[in-house]
Structures are given as structure tokens and as C-alpha cells.
Specification:
CATH architecture of the largest domain in chain A: 3-Layer(aba) Sandwich
Number of helices of chain A: 13
Oligomer: homodimer
Structural class of chain A: alpha/beta
CATH superfamily of the largest domain in chain A: Response regulator
Strand order of the largest sheet of chain A: 2-1-3-4-5-11
Radius of gyration of chain A: 26 Å
CATH class of the largest domain in chain A: Alpha Beta
Helix content of chain A: 40-55%
Largest interface: A-B, 51 and 51 residues
Largest sheet of chain A: 6 strands, parallel
CATH topology of the largest domain in chain A: Rossmann fold
DNA sequence: TTTAATAATACAAACGTTTACATTATAATT
DNA sequence: AATTATAATGTAAACGTTTGTATTATTAAA
């Protein structure tokens, strides 16, 4: 009855046709040395003829491997995360893995739900980036307890024992960028960034502070904005509002993402300032469209794609070596280099 | 031995602990009316205590459902596709499905490979957008033959029997946009678009032509560019090169994507023209960053997210109703409305 | 030829569920 | 108290593979 509806060809059908056992057919398909070449040829030919497609689910149940990597990102609509996914995918596909992306929609609850879903055995390993809300880690610790290979990336506020970590040095990168602004003899520098709950933003702000300290300069609290909004439009109004209310305008801005830099430039332009002539702006990220923006954005370039590749590499190592080996592995943290890209929003 | 390494809790373990049969435990987990409430409570409690996680693979093998939708997009690094994915994901998650995204990297061979992978039973249905290279359709017809629910979106050059189709009216949308430019009394209008191999671009160009015809106007062949490059930088040089070599500059440009519009504006700006004062530009898509661009982009707004939702809706209908019902279904094509968004690159 | 070695194939259990059917326990009816 | 209806649980097959072990066929050595 089921065969009537779902007429998939199975190993059994091939076996029956060729009067072989299922085992032999299975071994023939995987090119085992235990089956005669002639038989292999016959099996392959008839499989092709009958339109056989291996059932991946059955394979997975039997082998305990799905060849799928779970990827949890905070949101789809931030190009940085997509670039990382693209890097993960690129490396994964080379090694016969596919990726299952789950967005946690900036919510800790969704994140937990995503982790839970991956505990049901649909993936061989998990790569994830925490939301800004995440400050409790039982969910990932449980993942580790269950021997699920795990690699964290980008927004890492807390090192998880047994997990891999891939990130950049947000602190130093920010220092470098702000130092550039200081060297350009800017009297006062402002900061525009995302919610301080997110560790990458925090670290970038810390870098901003540190650069000032290092050069015995000070900055004004009223020149610092930690955006709370999430949608592009809301963010724009928050930035615009902040800038338009400023009594005295700083001579430069360091922004914790390219997007904030763009919102900043857009607002400044609306307010009648010229970038970079009146005010310099440096962003962080180096997204695709940053170089297409007018003026082209000077920023800290973050190796998003490479980050993804590295994440996948670590994850596949963990999967291949088994949990215990990688657990002892010293190399559970990778810090990727950033570099400054000078374009048209600085002088 | 396996239990030593992988100590996952199974229904059997719960059954043994409670001296019940696996069947009863299974039924208790799915809240079947055939098991006593008291027993259900006990099962749920002990499952929680033992940290039970259902094995999705085993479930899938038994039930024939994976609750995963396969999504094939030509590339990751085009925000339009990601928006569609986000829409698919949004609808899918509401209905207890997840999505497995595969990029075909603008290559027909990869596309076929992706389709093949989905024939191995890892997904309950497939949503896909053809690459610009795709002009043979055996691979998707085979998918249909194998009774795999299929919904195509965006770049549809060929209707596939039994598949769902979700698209916009590229032709009319383009006509409307170009008519606007004509009404603004622009003497001559240029066109910048992507490869003519991609049907959406072709249709948008056809709209460009049609608008001229309708208003008894003509356009110059040398004012038309079908970009062949793929990477952002290459595309920029191709556009810039094209524009800088133009003997006489048109008064306006209709571009087949927002990205081309941005490249166009950027090039024009470099060449000393003011947009929109000297030259008007209209894009197509309405991506997130289009409204952040300086000047803000006037464009045809394409409902990307909604398109994704619609794709998922059709796909889940096909999955739920079974192949045969939806095959006869009259409503196998949906054309979503676009609208013009007027901003700062037109007068 | 018979025996031993090895090549080729077959059998059957396992992976962790679901579910049709069978059985046993309980409650309702007489 | 016996009978019947029904509630609760159990047994076993099925989903489509893989793989350890057993069996049979073939070849090489005696």
C-alpha cells in the first residue's frame, strides 16, 4: 500500500531484481572490496536504470551521521552573518557537509529553542553566535555535555569549556581605528554603536576608551551613543535624533559597525556637515556595500568569510576527531586578524 | 560498546525504567488518548529527568517526514535571496519546519547537484530559484516525477508542470518605472542590467522597450548595458567603463537591480554628474540599504520577504495535501504586486 | 581428487522510532 | 458473580540502511 504511493527504489528492489542480498548491493554501492567487480557493475547499472537514490535518513540512522552542520545566527538581515554562513558553507561543502541555518531572531528564547532542536540529532555539529540577550550558558553547556561538537563565533562573552571559539580582536582593532582618528588631529571623537549588551560592541567601545587613555585624551559622554533600536529605520531615527541634539559636534566618529557609520554619515549629511571634510567617520566590518557607499567607507575590515571557513574547519575537526580528542585540544580558540581599509570617509 | 560512547537516552531506556513497553512510552510522549494520564505524567517526568531528546532521524525514517524544507538559491551574497529565505523561514518555523539552504553558486551544475542531494530524502519539499545558466529542466522535472513538492520563485523562464510558481510581474513593473522617467520629460533613457540570460532581467528590459514603444519614443542601443561580471568590483568597473565611454549621456537610467542603480550613481558621481539634478536613476528591488544610500534610491519595490512567505505557504500546502491534490490545483502560480517607491534619485 | 585458503555472497541484528494488532486490566451492566 | 464493553498496555513489524558473522563458491596447493 505504501509502495503504491511512495514508489522509491530501495536497495531491496535492486537486490530482488539481481537476485542478490541487500548486503551485497549495499556493499556494491559503497564500492567495497568484498564484492566482485562484475557484480558492482551490474548493481551500479541497474541502480542507475531504476533511478535509485540512497535514503539519507536511513543511512543517518544506521551510521549515526547526518553530514549536516547546524548554524545558529542571531538574524538573517545582517550581511556579516550571511558572509560567515557563506564561509561555513564553502568549507562544509568541500567536505561533503551541508548547513542548516537557524535564526534566533535576536532572542535568547529562540536561541535556546534552536539549540534544543539540534539536540534531536539532525546535525553532526553546531556553529553558533550568541544573541545580545544571551548571558546564561546552560543551553550550550548541555550541548557539550551531550557530546555535540560546538564552535562559537563572533559575539563571545564567555568561554565555554570544550567548545571552539573563533573571533577577532575587537578591542585592539578599535584602538587602532580610533588612534588613526586621534593622529588626524581630531580634537574630539564620538562613538556610535549598538547595544552595550553585545560583547563585540562593548569591546569596541572599550577600545575607543583605551585609545583615548593611551594618548592622554578624553572624550565626552554626550558624544557616545549605544543604539537600542533594531530595525534599520528606527536605528536611523535614533542616530539622527542623537546627532541633531548635540550641542557641539565632535570632529570624528568611530562607529561599531559599518551600518552605524552609514547611518551616521547619512544623518550628518542631512544636518549639513560634509564627510570627511568637516567630520571623519570610521566604520567596522567592511561589508560588500561599504565600498559602494558615497563616500566610500573607511573601516576596520573584518574577515567574515574567512571566519566562517575557520569555524567550519574547527567544527569538522571536532566531528572527525571525536569529542574527547578535541576537548583536550589546546587550540580551541582562534583570533583572526583585522585590517584597516582606508577609503573616503577619512582624510 | 556504542552505548559507552553515545549515551543518548532512548524510549527504551525510559520504558525499562518505568517497566513499560516502548510503545506505551512512545504514545505517552505524543500525548495519545490511549494512555492513562497518570502514566503520561510519569513518562514525561522521567523523560525530563533523564534528559530525553527524541531522535529526529529515527522519527523521520519511521514517519517519512523530516520537517525540513530544502531551499536552493543561486547565491548567498545577494540580499534579495536572503530576504526570500527569511520569509520562507518565517512561515516555515510557524508551521514547525526548518529550512536547509543550498547555494548553487550561479552554476547549473551545482544546481543539479543540489537537486540531487534533495532527492535523497532529507527534505519534505523544495523551493528554488534557477540560476541564470539554467535552460534545461530535466532535473526539476525529475523532482516532480519523484513526487517531491516543488515551488519555484523569482527567475522563472519556463513553467514546470506540477510545480508552484511565485514571482512578480517584472515586465509591467519595468514599464511603470520607465514611464515615470518618460513623464519627467527625459529626452533619452538608458538601461543598465544584469546578464540577459537571466529571465527577470530580460523581462525588465522588455518592459523598458515596451514603455518606449507605448509613448512613441525611441532609445539608443549604445545606452543599454547588460553586465556580464559577477563580483561587485568587476561589476563596478564594467558599469563605470560603459558610462565613461558614452559619447552623449542619457538624461535618466533605469536599472534592473538596486545594486546596478547604485553602481550607476556611483559612476555618474565620479564622472561629475549630479543625481538626480543632471540625471535621474531608478533601481529595482528595494533592498535594506537602498534607503540608506546617499542619495536615497528611487526604485521598484519588490516584496522579497512576502515572496518567501508565499513560497513557503504554497510548499506546505503541497506537502500537506499530498502531491496529487496540488497537482490538479489551479492556483499553481502567484504573481505578487510591486510598487514604486519615490525617493531622492528622481525629481 | 581432496584439502585448504580465500573470494564472494547471504543472513540477521542494529539504528530509534511509529503503529497495527493482540492482549490484559478495569469498569459497567446484567 | 458472570458478561460485556472499554481502557490500558504490550508485541512485533516496519521504515531503509550498514555491518559483523556465517555460509557458499571458487581457486590454489597438496
Amino acid at each position: 500500500m505504501k509502495a503504491e504511493i511512495n514508489n522509491r527504489v530501495r536497495l531491496e528492489d535492486i537486490a530482488r531484481t539481481l537476485k542478490l542480498s541487500i548486503a551485497t548491493v549495499s556493499r556494491a554501492m559503497s564500492d567495497s572490496s568484498r564484492v566482485k567487480q562484475e557484480t558492482k557493475n551490474k548493481v551500479l547499472a541497474i541502480a542507475e536504470e531504476m533511478g535509485y537514490r540512497p535514503n539519507q535518513i536511513a543511512k543517518s540512522l544506521s551510521s549515526g551521521k547526518t553530514n549536516i552542520l547546524g548554524v545558529i545566527i542571531p538574524r538573517y538581515d545582517e550581511p556579516f552573518f550571511i558572509e560567515v554562513c557563506r564561509g561555513i558553507d564553502y568549507y562544509a561543502r568541500k567536505h561533503n557537509y551541508r548547513i542548516l541555518i537557524s535564526s534566533s531572531r535576536n532572542s535568547f528564547n529562540y536561541e535556546k529553542e534552536n539549540v534544543l532542536a539540534f539536540e534531536r540529532g539532525t546535525v553532526d555539529g553546531v556553529a553558533m553566535c550568541f544573541t545580545h540577550e544571551t548571558n546564561s550558558f546552560e543551553h550550550v553547556e548541555e550541548l557539550i555535555d551531550r557530546k555535540m561538537p560546538l564552535v562559537l563565533f563572533d559575539n563571545i562573552n564567555h568561554k565555554i569549556d570544550g567548545a571552539g571559539h573563533v573571533k577577532i580582536d575587537d578591542f585592539s582593532s578599535a584602538i587602532k581605528a580610533v588612534e588613526d582618528l586621534i593622529k588626524h588631529k581630531n580634537e574630539s571623537i564620538g562613538y556610535i554603536g549598538g547595544t552595550s549588551k553585545k560583547s563585540v560592541f562593548n569591546k569596541r567601545f572599550d577600545g575607543f576608551v583605551e585609545a583615548h587613555k593611551k594618548h592622554q585624551k578624553s572624550f565626552k559622554k554626550q558624544h557616545v551613543l549605544n543604539c537600542k533600536s533594531y530595525h534599520q529605520e528606527h536605528e536611523f531615527y535614533e542616530v539622527f535624533n542623537f546627532l541633531s541634539k548635540l550641542r557641539e559636534m565632535p570632529n570624528a566618529f568611530f562607529c561599531s559597525t559599518d551600518n552605524y557609520a552609514i547611518l551616521c554619515i547619512k544623518s550628518l549629511t542631512k544636518l549639513g556637515y560634509k564627510v570627511p571634510k568637516d567630520i571623519e567617520v570610521i566604520g567596522f566590518g567592511n561589508l560588500h556595500y561599504s565600498s559602494m557607499f558615497i563616500p566610500e567607507l573607511t573601516c576596520v575590515s573584518q574577515p567574515s568569510f574567512k571566519m566562517g571557513e575557520k569555524v567550519a574547519e574547527m567544527l569538522l575537526n571536532k566531528i572527525d576527531n571525536g569529542f574527547f580528542v578535541s576537548d583536550v585540544d589546546q587550540d580551541n580558540e582562534v583570533v583572526l586578524p583585522t585590517k584597516m581599509v582606508y577609503r573616503d570617509t577619512t582624510r
